[in-house]
Amino acid sequence: MTLDPDISTPLWRQLVDVLVARIEDGTYRKGGRLPSEVSLQQEFGVARGTVRHALQHLVAEGIAETTNGKGTYVRP
Question: What is the pTM of this model?
Answer without folding.
Answer: 0.94
